[in-house]
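Researcher: Let's try something more involved. This one mixes different molecule types, so please make sure each is placed in the same coordinate frame as the others.
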Amino acid sequence: MLILLQQLINGLTTGTLFALIAIGYTMVYGIIELINFAHGDLFMLGAFLALTIVTRLGLEDAGVAGAAGGIVLTFLCSMGFCAGLNFLQDRIVYRPLRNAPKLTPLVSAIGVSFVFMGLGQIWKGVADINFPDVIPNQNLLGTDALRFTAKDLLVILVTTPLMAGLTLFVRYTKMGKAMRATAQNPTAARLMGIDVDRVIGWTFAIGGLLAGAASVIYGLTINTVSFQMGYQNGLYAFTAAVLGGIGNLPGAMLGGMVIGLVRSLGSQYVGEQWTSALVFGILILLLVFRPSGLLGARTREKV
Amino acid sequence: MSRQKEKVIAIAALLALAVFPLVASPRIGGEVKNILVFCILTMGLNVVVGYAGLLQLGIAAFFGIGAYITGILTVSQFPFQWNFWPATLAATLGSAVAGAILAAPTLRLRGDYLAIVTLGFGEVVKFAIKNLENITNGSRALNPIPAPDNLLDWNGNYRWYYYLALVMVVLVALLLRRLEDSHLGRAWFAIREDELAATCMGLNAAQVKLSAFAFGAALAGLAGALYAASLNQTGGPDSYTFNRSITVLCFLIIGGMGNLRGAIAGTFILMGYDNILTPWIDEAVQNSGAQWKFSTFKLVIFGLALILMMRFRPEGFFPSRRAEEDAAG
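Model: All components are placed in one shared frame. Result:
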């Protein structure tokens, strides 16, 4: 029973991390129907920037107050960096291709992904790098049987307000309304006076912002980064987005949780090495029986 | 380009490739042999993506299935120990069956969802290869795969596999060339151009797509069998990753989708860059005494090339006639 509970905790914390990245995939897909393969690698570059800042500031032995301040600064820098980079990526690469056939921006996204990965490789090399252990791995529960560490708490403390904020933003602000309108029908949105390109730019920036946050969390909790981390985690996050129903915001969050849980429960009850195959197996089965994902609306193919 | 001119160029290229191993160094010749094997894989992907217009992001899975069927049927650790030729046939058919099994329940999915299913399938196959150690030897791969016969010195001289691959490329290209003008080929094009109109003309869309999928998988399986045989081993699970699938997709798109010239040229251009040009420049840089390595930048340059290509010539270097007309407006 305790083991199950423990795996639920582990699964939900890693799940929120996938969810943060998944939101970037799902928002972009929802608006321009592009599978943005570069998103995972953006996440990797964010983590590299975080690594540089954390190392430069020497947060490992900066004391509690210093570390807390440094971590906040790292979050702000990585989030701003990823948001800006994602915005520029859209502005430079995808915007000229708005009316091109769908495969064209998709291949561009693969190209951007290679560029990011290559830059990461030049920046930090090909080996796995140790990310300084700033947050203590100390158990916050009074018992040894169940672990809920300071790292787990950090994940929840960062992700929950971000997701709540995003939900409120999309639901109540003017830009959020414009996003929903553009996702529904870009042409009609344009006719209603919405600057569609600006909306798309915002979407990329927000997706990048969340990926940046996720990258710092990843560094601080997993403590190992490498130029290939974007590829594997991006694939999981993308799967999360599809599981929840691609284009659907709560779906991405739910999908992230589901993938986190499948991975943690799978490693406990099926075997560590099979968890990835399990995740993708579930994805295939779900798409066969419910193609629109867990929460996606059943849309009819337009003729 | 007229049919006549096309034929002349094809024959000239074939002659050049036939003479090439007689003059090239074994290292470069070996690389070109590899490129020829991958040409078959790219042509297989071309059937699915280029002809039928279905985005397939897991072609490496069928490449791997072909390689491992060949491995399992030929290596000495299993009781089968078939000869290379029947094993290759089994690999081709086995991959086709795997493709059909995957495609049958998923073909009704909308374009992107189908792509995602193929991506997921690719990952499942990769992890199956990695984890089913009793069958696949995990990352140690299956080996040694015996040579096709004892008459020729297959392992001592790369040229035999080179010519085998070249003959296969020619056979596959001729087959596909004929298919393009056949009932089935036209059905593929029709589905790609307008599925609704095609079904209104009485085509069974599911059947047509399934055949494209199975056909593409079969060619990928054939390529996998050749790949494994020419390596003497199946290659570990890392040879069959998502990364390989999208790289082959890039071959196809850079070359020009929907036609054989494009598939073959794209494979030669990108693999040539990766496996021949990059090491050559690296060597030249090293000989000049400089401290940097070109291969460090190769991924960035490749990515930038893809982006620029999509921006300025999205139909590829050698577009099919139809794509050329579309681009001209």
